[in-house]
Amino acid sequence: MDAEAIRDVFQAFGSVGIRRMFGGQGIYRDGVMFALESDGALYLKADDETVDRFRDRGSQPFSYRTKDGRTTIMSYWLIPESALDDPEDAADLACAALGAALRSKASGMKKAKKPLSTRRPRKSVSEPAL
Fold this sequence. Notes:
Layout: H1 3-9, E1 17-21, E2 24-29, E3 32-38, E4 41-45, H2 51-56, E5 61-65, E6 71-78, H3 81-84, H4 87-111
Antiparallel strand pairs: 1-2, 2-3, 3-4, 4-6, 5-6
InterPro entries: TfoX-like, TfoX_N
Region (Disordered): 104-130
Pfam families: TfoX_N (PF04993)
């Protein structure tokens, strides 16, 4: 799926940015990736609050095989086929995906390490006397 087709799907959602990544494309709103395109399919970010919406519509999560043969499942779900032809439905799902992406980003920032200035100092090791 090319950039123009992606923008058509999300026309009711508003302006989106598109960047190439890993053989596919990342789709962004205000610098936050909320969707991805891979092999012509669009996937939207989901989390605990939104995943049932996708599951209830028969969607499947994005997955890929690693070099060692394991399957990795991502938190992006296939956009329902009906949303590809319904800009309002696509916009509604994109809003939900952007919310999931923002929540994910916020929780990731909470888990980030404390800055060095707020860490407890290390105990000093005294040097042996000569």
